Amino acid sequence: IGTGPYAVTAFNTGQNIILERNENYWNGTVPYKTLNFLFIDDSSSLTKTMALQAGNVDVVENITSTSDLDTLRGNPAYQVSETIGMRCGFSYLNQAGVLANKDLRTAILMAIDDDTICNKTVGGMYSPGCSVLPSSLAYNYDKLTDATPYNVEKAKQVLDAAGIKDTDGDGWRELNGQPINLEYVTYDSRNLAVMAEAVAAELKAIGIQATITKTDADTEWNRLVAGDYDLNSSNWMTVQDGDPYGYLANWYSKGEGDYCAYKNDQYDTLYDQLGTTLDTSKRVEIIQKLQQLLIDDSAVLVHGYYRSNLCSNTATVTGANISTADYYWITTDFKPVA
Question: pTM (2 decimals)?
Answer without folding.
Answer: 0.85
